[in-house]
Amino acid sequence: MSEPTSPTAPAPASGGVVTGPARTALWVPVLVVLGIAGIIAHDAAEKAHLKAEWAHCGDLPLTWQMYASAYGALACGLGAVVLLVLLALRGERHGSAPLRGWRGGVALASVLLGLLPLLAEAIIVWQLYQPAPGGTISCV
């Protein structure tokens, strides 16, 4: 007879591929990279907005791309941290170790390296609601 498998232990699929929490840990670095890509997209949208303001010779409202990239980046950065914490809590509760091994090391390292971009993402969202530091644009 075969032994019953634990519901928390990653069971190899038909091709020997690891599934479950160990594989879920690989989403953490993906979310960190998407958060950094959101910062880059926000920077591009902000430069385009500034160029449009100068061409218009006046203030323009912020574009939806600026809001979407700022909030998307923050959501990805926070999602990476939350996913890592949930995986750690799940492993502690069920007695398994989803963060053990190289996948857990990559997830932990990416969150630690992603803390600085997470701070930048929070500052970018905060900055969306602040008045322009240089005042209004005037072409006179």
Key phrases:
single chain; about 140 residues; mainly alpha
Structure write-up:
By secondary structure, this protein is mainly alpha-helical. It is built from five helices and no strands. Helix content is 65%, strand content 0%. The radius of gyration is 21 Å and the shape is rod-shaped.
Total strands: 0
Distance between the termini: 87 Å
Mean pLDDT across the residues is: 83
Q: What would the principal axes of the Cα set say about the shape?
A: rod-shaped
Output the structural class: mainly alpha
Biggest sheet features: none
What's the number of helices?
5
Taken in chain order, the helices and strands follow as HHHHH
> Which range does the strand content fall in?
under 5%
Q: Evaluate the radius of gyration.
A: 21 Å
Subunit arrangement of the protein: single chain
The level of helicity is: 55-70%
Which ranges are low-confidence, i.e. pLDDT below 50, for 5 or more consecutive residues? none
In short:
This protein is mainly α and 140 residues long.
SSE inventory with pairings:
Elements: H1 21-24, H2 27-56, H3 64-94, H4 102-113, H5 115-128
